[in-house]
Design goal:
The chain is elongated and about 50 Å long. It has one domain. The chain is mostly helical. The chain has one helix and no strands.
Length: 63
């Protein structure tokens, strides 16, 4: 998995805790190459991966 991310307050990807929509992309879309996750979105995806791994490990331990 490869994710582009930044600590900057960008709006290059929709969704996340702020529920960014397509219309929000105009505010701070700075990358002309790959859209980047902002710091909040980066933390959210990291936590989602950790939760998923925990669920998989728990399922493996049960049987």
């Amino acid at each position: 998995m490869h994710l582009e991310l930044t600590g900057e307050d960008v709006t290059e990807c929709t969704g996340g805790a702020r529920e960014l929509k397509d219309a929000d992309l105009e505010r701070a879309y700075r990358s002309t190459v790959d859209p980047r996750l902002n710091y909040e979105q980066s933390l959210e995806i990291a936590m989602a991966i950790v939760r998923k791994q925990g669920q998989q490990r728990a399922a493996e331990a049960r049987g």
